[in-house]
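Practice problem: predict the structure.
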Amino acid sequence: MRLNDGVVELRAPRRSDITELHRAIHASMPELLPWMAWAHPGYTDNEASEWVRRAARAFADGVEFQFVARELEHGQLLGTVGLNTIDRVNRWANLGYWLATPHTGRGYMTRAAQLVVEAIRWLPNFADRPGGDAHRGKHHDAKSAHGESDSLENGSSCLSDEPARRLQSDV
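Answer:
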């Protein structure tokens, strides 16, 4: 699955992303350490490789939906974003993300989060329930929930199909 809005592209992680992910994580370590339990100064290529492998397996199994985010114009890796802790019974999921430090302040993660929210209706077993698509006619707006287009940098938010809910950052 590939998603893009003309500025940001999201796609499933690949082995070819490992080195670039590792570099971006190390370059962003001071910003990641307070928020990401997996981040540590000795983060290795093997850990990045294992994340890619697990993310691909979880995507195929419909357990999690992780994406690598890239800037379309130059193809630069921006970070990752995805849905995890999916509760299909209560129609809820966690939106986890991190944005490489050099790309903050440009609205990239807001765009990426909006792409994921819009894609929920196509993700296997998430939007399916009697009565149709829970997201049809509803818009989850990350900008209005945060006031700025760059407020989604590193952290997680909760998504649900309740009409009054918006993306709300835990950070």
